[in-house]
């Protein structure tokens, strides 16, 4: 029986990639803002509907650099329900994370909890568009404006996601995308910062290249965050196929919703407008009515060669470097705790056969009926 992974990278045909590699080989321009790098920045900005985009070798360095670019310090309000890179980027900048609970429906940072967490040391709000579902960007911006705070969105899951007729990436001061191999759009590893203007992009471009402005001038203590030409070339090829990949994901997500309907103890989150989603993940929630716990179901599916992920469990606030913070207390994060203890992300990727979706759902249904 074949193994079904929770996600697999979309891989365009190899023969389509070879001409890109041959051009890199012939030009001998491997990194440092080569022609494919420049082309990908332009084409991605156009595709996503954003003004400026700075490519990075990975999204974690992009997060670290975004905080540097806006000179964020002190305390930053963020979510415990995310991948650890969100909070790690704060620690790498010497910033104290302040965790706030999440909304029970969107799983994003709950705006109603933000104001109570603001102190004189707060300089920014750092939300995540979890599973590609947009945060309440209007309310977050209202709060930021009242208190004079910056807003940086961790948009790792939000490639191509729309909000109010435009890209969700245009909200906040900066947004950071991930192009990791498991993402909707990938460059093996990779990431990008969405910049509102050319001046901000220039500062970010300096920061990702050691702070170098020209051959004899260093303007900031930068880092090496540049994307190389092979990554950029793969991204250009991926971009040709991304609409097809998104369409396939939508079909798979729809099939899951149909097949999981009516299974006692399995809850599928409601989606206001499926056409605005990118289906980067397919989370379900295992309730008390199901005959086994979430962790037992996770293990049982593995015995059927079905690999799922408890995404996001544990909470970031549970890890040793964070759990001593006052904001990490269990009583401060009841919704995040409940969501993290119930969530299970099922396999979803463009080439996942619908027969496999049916088999996964059938197994889960049979176990529910055997109660």
TrEMBL record:
- What are the N6-(pyridoxal phosphate)lysine sites (modified residues) in this protein? 183
Tell me what organism the protein belongs to: Rugamonas aquatica
Q: Which InterPro entries match?
A: DegT/StrS_aminotransferase, PyrdxlP-dep_Trfase, PyrdxlP-dep_Trfase_major
- BP GO annotations: polysaccharide biosynthetic process
Where is the signal peptide, in residue numbers? none
Q: Which protein family is it in?
A: Belongs to the DegT/DnrJ/EryC1 family.
Entry-linked CDD domains: AHBA_syn
- Protein name according to UniProt: DegT/DnrJ/EryC1/StrS family aminotransferase
UniProt entry tagged with the keyword Lipid biosynthesis: no
State the Pfam families in the record: DegT_DnrJ_EryC1
